[in-house]
User: Fold this.
Amino acid sequence: MTKALPPAESSATSAAAPAAAHAAAPGIICTVDVVLLTLRDRALHVVLLKRRGEPYAGALALPGGYIHPEEDATAWDAAARMLREKTGIVSPYLEQLATYSGRQRDPRGWSMSVVYYALVPDELLPHDGDGLSVVPVAELPELPFDHAEIVQLAVSRVRAKSQYSSLPVYLCGERITLPQLQAVYEAVLGEPINKVSFRRKVEELGMLEPVEGELVTGAAHRPAQVYRLRPAFRRELSTVQRGLNA
Assistant:
């Protein structure tokens, strides 16, 4: 006996089932977050904003928000936009840190956040920003989501890269002396740097150019030459093979 074939509509129903299930599945929350770091009182600080909506309304958190697919060409563009809209800052250095994802990190559902970090001189931060706080990274308050873990990872990344690159210059103003720059590096790294070794590494990095005719005179020291970042390194890092104290 020949086995009867199933009705044609059964095949169509079977094919449509996965599509229907996919359409009914909840969407993934896709955001960007930015760890904006600055140097204040010779210590690294992070910029936090008071959340306006749920979840965690009123809590301090990292600047962040949804990716806008019609407006943001990339996640980097979304992070730059978020930073500009929420803090008024256009950071010269914005680098991807990591991607955080999972079902448990956000009470609203399965979420993914592409995290970036940025560095900015303290004098460029808005001091009258609505809901903006600048907090020492060593004294973080309780933060929502996984933001405390994210801040610690960013600080670790910045300290590691500062050992062999020009990264800390983004915490400085447009003009700086070598003693001032060494103090910035030491504050970021949390340890002293040998003066001779530091100046040798700065020369190897080749990131600075002297500002002709500009000197800073200290009470107990001879005048110090004023430098600025070379144009080639205003958005790109300069690196060396070995660390600052090597």
Observations:
- The first strand starts at residue 29 and ends at 40.
